[in-house]
Amino acid sequence: MQTLYLIRHTTPAVEPGICYGQLDVGVTPGFEGEARQVAAWLPRPDLIVASPLKRARELGEYLARACNCELEFDARLMEKHFGRWEGQAWASIERSELDAWAADVPGYAPPGGESATQLMRRAQALLHDLGRMPQETIALTTHGGVIRAVLAHIAGMPLADILHWEVGYGAVIGVKYRRN
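RESULT FIELD:
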């Protein structure tokens, strides 16, 4: 068994109501306090693997220093790519596109983006590779969509059943995962 800590990035520096999936936004001025709180909750991992997007990367770097452990980056931990929607206000996205997404949340890919099912495949490939690593305890600093995909896979649940689960900024979720 391997212990995974799924950690969502701290509060991003982005206006409310903006679609920001893989948009590389930074962190808010409250980052230090939020990161300190995450570090206090996190048992010392053997390895931290972070999304390369700033908001998760900065948290991964902070935690690696605080825990004195190795840090790696993996693009498979990046949030869902919303394509043409990235950086737009949700209210300005074509209603027909939002309706198409609502009709098939797992399968619909925004123009130029990826579907939740594609995100799930990325997460599964990452878990497969993590299961081959010698480290017993691994922390992932990542995004809400990736965390949901990982939890769905580990629990053997359809992704559609957990897409509505809330994962707060700075959340730390620990799970035991059977290695490959």
